[in-house]
Design a protein that fits this description.
It is built from one helix and two strands. The relative contact order is 0.20. The model has no long low-confidence stretch (mean pLDDT 79).
Length: 54
């Protein structure tokens, strides 16, 4: 199963789906590249994010 993140995107040119609660689907692998918050002094904090499950 491919994992993805679903977000409410504020930039219309980045939206790629039309759902009631989100308008952008990002594969997890791509999201990790976009969300890389690593700093040289904090190597354990690369890709810090929250997940919500139902």
């Amino acid at each position: 199963m491919k994992r993805s993140f679903f977000i409410a995107e504020s930039l219309a040119e980045l939206s790629n789906c039309n759902e009631p609660h989100y308008n952008r689907r990002i594969p997890a692998k791509e999201f990790k590249k976009l969300w890389n918050t690593a700093m040289p002094k904090m190597p354990l904090y690369a890709n810090t994010f929250f997940t919500v499950e139902r």
